[in-house]
Amino acid sequence: MMGILVSVIVGVALTLPISSAAICAALGLTGLAGGAAVAGCCAQMIGFAVMSFPENKWGGLVSQGIGTSMLQMGNIVKNPRIWIGPTLASAITGPIATCIFHLQMNGAPVSSGMGTCGFVGQIGVYSGWVADIAAGTKTAITGMDWLGLILICFVLPAILAPLINMGCRKLGWVKDGDLTL
What we know:
By secondary structure, the protein is mainly α.
């Protein structure tokens, strides 16, 4: 349950015009909670980037995927339902990150709130792995570690958010042009 809450709350904070990175830094958010936060942020960034690709093409993919999902804030104000896909994707990837892959972000706490922005979230997870190995609490970086990081941060958000958004489109809640930057 906490994986869902942390993932959704930090992911939403990332998209809002506030600093999710500062919140995570102030809270010292690391470990499994940091992993859930990274998952939520990635779901927002990659989710918006991929689901808006038909409207924003490559520029939108890059600017939202490794820049910020905050670019969609004006569109969210116009139609809050565009936020359903990335937010539900956060709710799904958070517990997968914590319960299945045991994804921990043991780097600098600020990295927990950065998602894929400049790949800071992923660098934080990796630097945490290296620090854990140096401290003797982890023996090696495994294939399962890498698989979890790639699935949680990139693959699942790129699949889940557009699929959920497709359902929203079928219900008439999201229309062409709603995601145009």
